[in-house]
Write a structure and sequence with these properties.
This protein is of the alpha/beta class. About 45% of the residues lie in helices and about 15% in strands. It is built from 17 helices and eleven strands. The strands form two sheets. Strands 4-3-2-1-5-6-7 form a seven-stranded parallel β-sheet, with helices on both faces. It has a four-stranded mixed β-sheet with strand order 9-8-10-11, covered by helices on one side. The termini are far apart. The structure holds NADPH dihydro-nicotinamide-adenine-dinucleotide phosphate and magnesium ion. NADPH dihydro-nicotinamide-adenine-dinucleotide phosphate binds near residues 122, 202 and 205. NADPH dihydro-nicotinamide-adenine-dinucleotide phosphate binds near residues 8, 11 and 120.
Length: about 400
């Protein structure tokens, strides 16, 4: 039996992971499940999977979690320390699927215990890629990509030498507004931004897909995870979301990865790696699909991609500033305080301000220093957002 834990179990990736685990209950011994505010889901799954412990990130939800787990034999815990303690519990495989920078500390803690960390939480690579990779190496742990594009690239590199790679092309659906007239974008509502043409995902990443901040994070994730140069990474709009990524080699060959838009493929690949096992995903019928379309992303529609390049060019802990500013701007959009198109303006303002903060941005990359950058960038983003409103 493999010991596994799922961080962010109540979310979209967490639930897809649980779906796979449930299909082979005798293969897995569930150590910890963690969630946030969705206590009912967390408790139900922890009981059904006979987890050792269920943790909510928020102290205020502990009484409800304890009540829901009463008599089940599943331990209940809450708060940041409890999350870190759960990450330190021995496990062979841990899913990192908390959303946002909040996933960084538990992921790092898990790596310190030599586990295999399946990383859906791209934000932690964007904020602290070097720290994660160095920690994994130091403790003999392993990081496996779960983001669909990065899983696709990872699969395209099996048996290949990274030195023979010329380019990595990650695809983007183009999100909810890919065909909208540009002048309508400022009027986009939260409901419109929260609906994705192809993927069923959490609300935050869905809005980030419409703005392409998600792809901007993924470009940085590609650089960090695969160690390629920024000029080797390309983004291609592909409305069907069936080709997830392509790897171009020095002999002109391009290896493309195709599959249904179902995260259980990438999760399952990381779960069974280095083997492949049968997965409950749709098999593509290309004759029926008929055609696949590709186009270059429009820089005016998707300013986030240009910002990602600026972040990579600046280096240091600019990724942490970028992610934090983006998270704050997204909070402000979700709360109705700023418009859809204001998000990129806010993030760009923060990048300009933070690039002057050399003492912070170029300091040693530690969890504390990443936290300092994150804190200041959020403050600056909130201020920049307030200026947009006022
Ligand atoms: P969801 O919003 O659906 O789920 C997020 C999970 O994190 C929930 O379990 C939530 O708990 C928990 N959570 C939220 N805030 C905190 C916090 N501050 N501390 C601890 N836990 C918290 O997100 P997704 O599943 O969509 O995404 C998870 C990660 O995977 C993200 O990094 C995303 O970018 C990445 N990803 C997602 C894909 C997808 O298809 N959804 C595809 C590729 C990558 P609760 O809901 O109980 O409050
Ligand atoms: Mg992705």
């Amino acid at each position: 039996m493999r010991k596994i834990s799922i961080f962010g179990a109540t979310g979209s990736i967490g639930q897809n992971t649980i779906d796979l685990i449930r299909r082979a209950p005798d293969s897995y011994n569930v150590v910890a499940l963690t969630g946030g505010a969705n206590i009912e889901r967390l408790a139900q799954d922890a009981i059904a999977l006979r987890a050792d412990i269920a943790v909510t990130a928020y102290d205020c939800h502990l009484p409800a979690l304890q009540a829901a787990l009463q008599g089940s034999g599943v331990e209940a815990a809450a708060g940041q320390t409890a999350l870190l303690e759960a990450a330190a519990r021995p496990a062979d495989w841990i899913m990192s699927a908390i959303v946002g920078a909040a996933g960084l500390a538990p992921g790092l803690e898990a790596l310190k215990h030599g586990t295999t960390l399946a990383l859906a939480n791209k934000e932690s690579l964007v904020c602290a890629g070097q720290l994660l990779l160095q920690t994994a190496e130091r403790y003999g742990a392993r990081l496996l990509p779960v983001d669909s594009e990065h899983s696709a690239v990872f699969q395209g590199l099996v048996g290949e030498d990274i030195a023979a790679v010329e380019r990595i092309i990650i695809t983007a659906s183009g999100g909810a507004f890919r065909d909208w007239p540009l002048e309508d974008l400022p009027k986009a509502t939260l409901a419109q931004a929260s609906s994705h043409p192809n993927w069923d995902m959490g609300q935050r990443i869905t809005i980030d897909s419409a703005s392409m901040f998600n792809k901007a994070l993924e470009v940085i994730e590609t650089k960090e995870y695969f160690g390629v140069r920024p000029d080797q990474i390309e983004v291609l709009v592909h409305p069907e979301s069936l080709v997830h990524a392509l790897v171009g080699f020095n002999d002109g060959a391009i290896m493309a990865h195709l599959g249904a838009a179902d995260m259980r493929h990438a999760i399952g690949y990381a779960l069974h790696w280095p083997e492949r096992q049968s997965l409950p995903v749709e098999r593509l019928d290309l004759a029926r699909i008929g055609q696949l379309n590709f186009r270059a992303p429009d820089p005016a529609r998707y300013p986030a991609l240009r910002l990602a390049n600026e972040v990579m060019a600046r280096g240091g802990m600019m990724g942490a500033a970028f992610n934090a500013a983006k998270e704050q701007a997204l909070d402000d959009f979700i709360a109705g305080r700023i418009r859809f198109t204001d998000m990129a303006v806010v993030v760009e303002t923060v990048l300009e301000q933070m690039s002057g903060e050399s003492d912070l941005i170029d300091a040693e990359m530690t969890l504390d220093n990443v936290g300092r950058v994150d804190h200041l960038a959020r403050k600056q983003a909130a201020r920049a957002a307030a200026e947009r409103i006022g």
